[in-house]
Write a structure and sequence with these properties.
311 residues; alpha/beta; eight-stranded mixed beta sheet; 12 strands; disordered C terminus
């Protein structure tokens, strides 16, 4: 097996894994299809392994290819971090900062924060990774994360920005047609919007509120944005952030005394980035913007986890 294998071969390998074909990988990478094919052939020869089985439907990864995937993804993450670090060198706030957060935060909360940040620092490039999966900051899958759980990894600088309140809401059109539930028992007669998969959030919410379970949902989707769109369309009753619901007078809270769930909100980044101008100003902008979102005016304290407070 060759000991010095070019990164571009692994990059093509990952693209084929994700796209399922040479043509799809070529489009994703912006290179010619024969080039991708040569890369896969060269990698197989260097490793002494068959990585894909050719079929009429595309390329099927072998067991060997699947076993290598995680290592190649780590290489990809490291390469991306290197590029971002190199782009940020020099004086002033410039280069790329990669943020990760949930879909709802990324679509409903962050855009004005990012816009104001870019107005102030036009040489800053912002990448948004919207996912409910917790990105690994230690592996540099992202530079800064907005999390709804307290970060517990070592080597992270994190700050609590407050609690985002959740409540049950419905659109006025829905309530005008089907009536407003006055008790938890009344929910059995209503169209409920919730998750398809039994998520950690669903398990947490169902403990104090047993009626909130998958079997009771008339509409099921694991997309928070889809749930929000269904609420706004008047399709039924579902969970919404109170700060987002207050923007629309047609959104009405129901059973406020029976259902109220706070989400702890944190901003976190790797301690190695604390002196990076681009990450520092972005971190502070997120803290300030999210404090406004949760309606928290008092100064938040830094969370210390094997590192001194961010000052």
């Amino acid at each position: 097996m060759a000991s010095d294998i070019s990164w571009e071969l692994y990059r093509s390998f990952l693209a084929v894994l994700k796209e399922g074909s040479l043509s799809g990988a070529a489009r994703a990478l912006g290179i010619a299809q024969p080039t991708v094919g040569r890369h896969i052939g060269a990698l197989e020869k260097s490793l002494g392994l068959a990585l894909f089985i050719r079929s009429q439907t595309g390329l099927m990864p072998t067991e060997a290819a699947q076993s290598l995937r995680g290592f190649a993804e780590s290489m990809q993450s490291t390469a991306a971090s290197l590029e971002r670090a190199a782009a940020s060198q020099g004086t002033g706030v410039r280069g790329t900062v990669r943020l990760t957060c949930s879909d709802v935060i990324g679509v409903e909360v962050l855009p004005p924060i990012v816009a104001a940040l870019r107005d102030q620092y036009p040489e800053l490039i912002v990448e948004l990774v919207l996912t409910n999966r917790v990105q690994d900051l230690l592996r540099r899958e992202a530079d800064i994360a907005v999390r709804m759980v307290r970060p517990r990894q070592a080597l992270l600088v994190a700050r609590r920005v407050g609690q985002i309140g959740l409540g049950l809401y419905a659109h006025q059109r829905y309530l005008a047609r089907y009536g407003t539930p006055r008790s938890v028992a009344d929910l059995a007669a209503h169209a409920l919007i919730g998750f398809d998969e039994t998520t950690e959030f669903l398990r947490h919410a169902s403990k104090p509120f047993p009626v909130w379970r998958r079997e009771a949902f008339a509409m099921r989707t694991d997309s928070d944005l889809a749930q929000l769109a269904l609420l706004r369309s008047g399709a039924g009753i579902g969970v919404c952030q109170t700060a987002i619901a207050r923007r629309d007078k047609a959104m009405v809270r129901v059973l406020a005394k029976q259902f109220s769930l706070p989400l702890e909100t944190w901003i976190a980044m790797h301690e190695d980035l604390r002196n990076s101008p681009r990450c520092r100003v972005t971190f502070e902008a997120l803290v300030e913007g999210l404090q406004r979102h949760v309606g928290q005016s008092e100064r938040t304290s830094a969370y210390r986890h094997r590192v001194p407070p961010l000052v």
